[in-house]
Amino acid sequence: MTVLAYGVAGWLLLVGVFGVVRSRDLVHAVVCLSVAQSGSYVLLVAVGYQRGAGPPLAGSFAGPLVDPVVQALTLTDVVVSATVTALLLALSLQIARRHGTTDPDDLTGLKG
User: Fold this and answer.
1) Residue 63 and residue 87: Cα distance in Å, rounded?
2) How far apart are CA 13 and CA 22, in angstroms?
3) Of 5, 12, 100, 112, which has the maximum CB count within 10 A?
4) Cα dist. 82→35, 54, 77, 98, 111 in Å?
5) How does pLDDT run across 92-102, given as a tens digit for each residue?
6) Is 38 part of any domain?
7) What pLDDT is recorded for position 54?
8) pTM (2 d.p.)
């Protein structure tokens, strides 16, 4: 199972990066970045996976336990990804309001 999970994580990263590179719209680029970040969730879960291990509650399972640090890192990654996505979508909305387009090639230079 872990080899499949590593392959899925790599595939998600490659598809997301390819989408960002080929994107002709800022919102599409944000969504593709979110897809690329979801590859890190799968990678972290694959790293922390142990066959036959129980939940990380001491004394409740006789045998190996799953490392809770990996689960905490995955949850932190999800929260940071949601925050970054919300921030980038808000910036895309402001760019659309000020410039009238979300096409990166049509945007004018900064004036300051």
Assistant:
1) 43
2) 14
3) 12
4) 11, 29, 9, 24, 30
5) 999 999 888 88
6) yes
7) 78
8) 0.82
**Residue 64: φ, ψ to 5°:** -70, 150
Query: pLDDT grade, residue 87 (50/70/90)?
Result: very high
CB 28, CB 5: distance < 8 Å: no
Residue 53 is part of which domain span? 2-106
The domain spanning residue 67 has which CATH number? 1.10.287.3510
Q: Let me know if residue 111 belongs to a domain.
A: no
The answer to whether residue 48 sits within a structural domain is: yes
**Tally of domains within the chain:** 1
Cα separations in angstroms, 36 against 78, 89, 107, 109: 12, 16, 25, 28
